[in-house]
Amino acid sequence: MASLFLDLVFGDVPLIHVFTWLTNGTVHEDIQELLTNETENVRYSFPLLLANFIREQSSCLLKLHNVNPSEQNIVSSPKREIFIPTVHNLSLGSPSPNSRNGGNCQETRRIRKVTPQRLDLSNDSAFPSLQQSAQLREIPKKRRINPTQLVDSPVSRVQFGSYSKPSPPPITGNAFNQAKEQASPKSFDQERALLKEKKQQLTIPAMPDLVNNTSKTWTCVEPDMNFVTRQTELDRLSALVSFCVSRHLISSLYNEIHFLIQLLVIRVSPAKLKQAHLAAGSSSLLLGSVHNCVYFSAKTLETLEEVWRHVDPTTLQQLMRNPRLLLFSPEWVNGKLTRLFSSLKTEDRIPPQKTVANVAFQSETDNRFNFASDSSFQFFRKQRDQFCEVWQIWKVNSSIPSWNMALGLQKMIQSLVDLRRDCVNYAHLARLFRSQLLNVAQLVKPVNYEEERNGPLGQLQSSDPDKLRRLRERLINPPDSRPTRCVGSESDIKMNFEGDQEFFRDFILLAASPSFNEHLKNNLLSGIQDLSSSDDCDDRSQFAENVIALQVMAKFLAFLHFYPHASADHLPEHVFHNLSRLRMSQREPIDLVSYIKEAFHKGRLVLVIPWVVTYLTLADPVAFSLPGFHSVLCHLIFIYRKAELTPANAFLVRVSLSWLFNQPNFPLPLLAKSDEELVVQLRHHSLAVDDQLPQLDRSTHLVDPSLIHQCCPYLWSWKHLLAEFACSDAKSSGEGKASVSRKITPVSAEESPSPVKTPNVKSLQQSLEENFFQNQPASVKRTVEFVAERLASNVVRDIRHQIIPRLVHNAQASLKTWRDSFATVKDPVESLCRQLCLDVRNESISSATSAVASIESTLTALLPNDLLPPVQRVCVVIASKLTHGKVVDWIHLHVTNGLFKNDLEVELAKLDKNVNRRLTSTPSATVNDNLPVVHDPATLAPSFLIERLKTLIRQVIRDASKVTGQEVAELLASTDGTLHRRVDVTPAVSKCLQQLTFDFLFILCVFQPESVGSQTIVAWVEFWSRAYPSRESAVLLETEEQQPPGASTSIWQVLTPKQLLLLAQSTAPRESWTLVSTLLVQLMKAGLIRYKDVQEQAVAVVRQEWPQMNIRNVYCCWWWTALVAISATVGPPLLCDGLKVTGFRVPSLALYGSDVELDCAFSAARNAKLYSVKWYQNHEEFYRYMFEERTPVTAFTRPGINVDVSFNIAIISKNIE
Amino acid sequence: MARVISKTTYSSLLNSVYKLPYRNRVQTLQKLFPQLSVDTLKCVVAQECQRRMKGSHGRLTTSEAVEVLYKRYTNSISMSEEPGILLRLSDENGLTPALLARSIIERHYQKSDKTKPAKLLVSTLMKNTALIDDRDLAFETYLCLLEDDEYGPIAEAAKQSIGYEYEIRLRMELEKCRVSFLHEEHLRVKGYDKTPDIKLEIPVAVDGQVINWIESKALFGDEEVHRGYLKDQLYSYWNRFGPGLVIYWFGYVEDLEKIHQNRIILIRDALPMNMIFMEQNS
To answer: Which of A238, A349, A606, A887 has its CA 20 to 30 A from that of A137?
Structure first.
């Protein structure tokens, strides 16, 4: 095979014939004989073989480039390994520790490392190589001395090799001269000494041991135009390669350029070269010398204009300032490349300035109605907060080396994920997870070029990239302990996640919840589905956001799908075979082929291919061998070869794909297949490419270098190669992971609204409608659907928040009347529900109808202007129909009897409860209920008033400070103001004020009767009855039920032990007693206090023992009499209108053991029928007279009471023991 | 009168609070720290008291401890001591008057099997002391309630009220500034899971920061209080609505915002008047 290339290159066959052959298979007679020995298929494997041929030619030289294997661990990126797939074994003398596949792969990132010292910023010797390096030409030629600097000369490092300096003329080599010019004069002596030493070395032919002896001295072959041999052959080879690359025949675009750059920057020490020459005699190879390599590379790179247009400015800059390129193709570098560079800079994409870093709460998707139950909702609230908390903790701690995520967060994560094992919660959590992921994953950005260059770090970058790299490395991974944040060992997980994405990966691993994973998978799938078909891609930043979001989602989907199959080991053949047989029928979670096909037809490859590639690169080796994958890969190869896109788009797609083709697991034979063999059915599917849709692939403004680099972070390796070269041992691997971050809010991926349910049979009308939209611009359909959807949603909201609450309220009211009127309906709730349901449906329909009226104006404004009026009318009709349909659907789904049942039952229960509690019900909060209150800020704040009253009461009791009548009146006025003219009075406060004012007045009556007049009491009682009206209905509904003791909790407690104790402390008892009596009478008159309560209180008082207060006892008894007298005069009318107690006689004191006569005289209205008269002692009834009974008198025997019964007059004899 | 206090002032203020006897600390502090507003001092004292009670309430109200207290109380009653027995006991023991009274009532109403009475009964009695069947206990309890500024139904009503008053005040001030917002009740109706006092429907900017919600707190914000709110409320709001503003009407300790790390939640002691609104003219 190699002979074919040798013949081609060394022969004189016009290359144009080869090109035609490669393009369409026509074999020109000139090349016929070359191909005689080859198989049919050679046309397709030709590019692959060509690539191998070049590698073979340069292999022995590249081998030498790898100088210091021990350094390679540091040098090679820890994140990514690059393999060159080769048919032939290109294994190295010193196998890279990273190449897992043994000899099959070649570590390409081979950097010349000088000193194996530990990186230490504080140590000057950490930056030695440049200063100490010297360069030699090849031995037989004239040597050039490179000036050197002393090891310990710390000066001028900043300017050293600065890119901003114009490149030195080629004859003096490179930037190293700068060092000399800039060097501090102090070090000149030392430099001279070193120079002398150098000179000595140079006079002697360089020997291998020389390199070894002066281990800190560097020599390498500097390419020179004059030493290029076989220039014509190289030119032919270069033409072949560039043709293959530019015509997409070589399927590994990324890799080829990487390789070419590698050739460009090759550095070989003459000593080694000499050794190698002796050993292999490689001088016969076409690319056997550094000069040839560089020449070939420069020539080829020059022709790849297309590529350079799309790389980022830094890479271009590196390329422009590469001294070798400048030397070998100066006109290209100074001409086109410079122009390209300057044109690129202006086009730099401005990152969207987003400052929102959290996942916003969307009431449409996150509120209570999106959950099945209250508890589910409450649990998710906790889950949401915990998730955010975990994320914050991670963000704070992840950079701390000693912090272990598994230790710190595992428990929290597991508990939050499985807090409630319910599909609704899992689904919501998965949604939150995805939103947060998209939110932050987009923050991983490449270095912002401008910022980086202008800042202080940027200067360091240009002067000493290596130092910058080490600084970064030091910052990110402290030397001793790089935190193993991953759950498994580092090698276990081959799936690379950068920056914040690590959190999400580890979250999934730590949560270890299959249910969550399943939901997350579904969520990601639907997200990919939505975004892939999303239409909002016209905007550049929107498009970039979508591409990146898709990539991230695909990455995590792949992670979830492939993680179980990942293995850290190389699988032996039979194990591999077994595994692949097991997974033969495994179904992929996502139908990639159909996505690719659809994208191809709709011209959206540029959106779809990047995420498909991301997904596939995470696939495990076994997966690639599965039949399901085969077709996917064939499609991708086909697209690589044939897809027609605008240049930038094509570059993005091809670079992504070539990265995929470079994956170590990729089945290489596929690449050599012919177009026909790929059996791709893209063309046959449907040729009618929908021209209505925006053809993303055709647009020229969507993709720019910064997006390309964001999507394909591996492109940075090109720049790294160049940068390494520029600074000998520098390697800025840190650049890919920028510290500069940019925030992008995620596109909220809502479920696409379910279409209106339609009957299965397609009516003619429907197909008419379909056709109507088919022939209209796609935007028309979208607009109509959108308007209908929004309108329906508004109507539904209106129904939910206005109509239903109103009708339910009415129904609840009617429930009350039903209760009161003892309706005959057996199950009121059921019938009411039915009625309610009907009402709601009717009202909803009418509200929908009225909403539809506004459609016309809306649509006119939104639809394209050039639509014919009839078309617009049809749109309006369709939109109205859709709206109606949606509303009706909603109503049928949600407005059911069950919807109201709960409400009404609750109300019913409340009513029942109210009936039971009516005695205790204290009216409150009624203050603000009726009228809208106008807030008067001049009134006292409730809290202030409470404080004031409290202090006053305290002062009156404790300090006996005087309160004037004036003050009391003012207090009344301000309390009234606070209660009635403020909006910030809560029910509890109102109740508290009631209690406090009453206490205040009572205490004033007791302690300062002189400042209280009966007018004051009347005024206050009037105020209370206004502010706290007692419920008349409650009194009316009173039944004979027995109240549990202590249940009477009314505020108006005049006759309780405590109040009496207060009264007993009065200094002017008689006045106090009178006032309290007045208070009691007023309260009863106002209906605030009931006769029965007074009775109960009186009984309770009597029951108390008042041992130590003999003198007060008199008052007490006197007062008791007075009380009963009051009850006699005021009480009965409260109970019944027709009855009046006319006389009541009970002795205040009686002799122990004597008889007592109790007398109660009453007069009933003429028509009134009296039911009963009852006498009680301590709550216990002992005498009853029932007027309608045959034996009206019943006497209950109680210890100590004997009742003497006579007709119409009850005589009670009470024997006091 | 300053309401925003530097860390050093706050720690010296707290030191004085610790040293002073429980009763009437605010008046004394007013003399010591004339530059601080009375509300702030009251709040600091109240918060110290609550913190103290949180720490010692459990220890002071074990059944054994209450038994001892009750014995002392009944003894004093039988000795016909002057009213204010429970107040004196409270000063001595460290429990605030209302909490002490509550324990005594619980003990007084304990059932025959020595279990505690129903909570509802006890709170009813606390609310309306007239219902307590023992006249001396009723009066003593009443005196306690009048004296206690942190616990007991009266103090609680006042505290609850003050929170609500400031919420209303905030709403009114916002309305005056023509800021459109939803308040808590609206949000609850809409089914939000976490409801700040104010959610701005159109965000405004304060001192260069965008705010989306406002929380009103009628108390003094020190680090402990603030951390508590951050955990329970403010971070939850941040998680849902983004950056916001919390107003500690009675002041706060300086530099409190530092503990938020990268989450922006502004702290002020009043509604900032330098709000920048979104431009509404198209």
So the answer is: A238
Q: Which of A105-119, A725-739, B145-159 bottoms out in mean pLDDT, i.e. has the lowest?
A: A105-119
Taking the CA of residue B73 and the nearest CA in chain A, the distance in Å comes to 17
My answer on whether A1026 and A1173 are in the same domain is no
What is the per-residue pLDDT across A952-998, written as a single tens digit (0 to 9) for each? Answer: 888 888 877 788 888 888 888 888 888 888 888 888 888 888 888 88
Query: Is residue A890 domain-shared with residue A993, that is, in the same domain?
Result: no
In a domain, A533, yes or no: no
Among B80, B139, B160, the residue with its CB nearest the CB of A1061 is: B139
- Total domain count, chain A: 4
Same-domain check for residues A831 and A964: no
Q: Tell me the shortest Cα–Cα distance from B38 to chain A, in angstroms.
A: 14
Which among A776, A819, A610 is positioned nearest to A696, based on CA atoms? A610
Query: Of A950, A1049, A1104, which is closest to B128 when you measure between CB atoms?
Result: A1049
The answer to whether residue A315 is domain-embedded is yes
CA-based nearest distance B123→chain A, Å: 11
pLDDT along chain B (282 residues), means of 10: 86 89 84 88 90 88 89 89 88 88 90 84 87 86 89 90 92 88 84 88 86 92 90 88 91 87 86 83 55
The whole-angstrom separation of Cα B74 and Cα A1204 is: 44
- Chain B residues touching residue A1057 (CB < 8 angstroms): 132-135, 138
Domains identified in chain B and CATH numbers: 4-151 (no CATH), 163-281 (3.40.1350)
Domain co-membership, A230 together with A297: yes
A355:B121 CB<8 A: no
User: What's the ipTM?
Assistant: 0.90
pLDDT, residue A471, reads: 58
A953/A1101 same-domain check: yes
Distance in angstroms (rounded) separating the CA atoms of residues A632 and A680? 9
Of A452-461, A1077-1086, B220-229, least confident by mean pLDDT is: A452-461
Q: Please give the pLDDT value at position A204.
A: 43
Element (H or E) spanning A1201, and its range?
A: strand A1201-1206
CA dihedral (A733, A739, A740, A746) in degrees, to 10, reads 100
CB contact under 8 A, B240 and A356: no
Residue A106: how many other CB atoms lie within 10 Å: 24
A386: nearest CA in chain B? B236
Q: Are residues A784 and A865 in the same domain?
A: yes
Task: Name every residue whose Cβ is closer than 8 Å to that of residue B112 and which is 6 or more positions away in sequence.
Answer: none
Tell me if B165 and A1061 make a contact (CB, 8 A cut-off). no
Q: Tens digits of per-residue pLDDT, A651-709?
A: 888 888 888 888 777 877 777 777 666 666 555 544 445 555 557 777 777 777 778 87
Q: Where are the alpha helices (DSSP H) in A138-187?
A: 176-182
Its domain, for residue A1062, covers: 942-1030+1051-1128
DSSP conformation letters of A690-710: -SSS--GGG-SSS--HHHHHH
Pick the residue from chain B with its C-alpha nearest to A387: B239
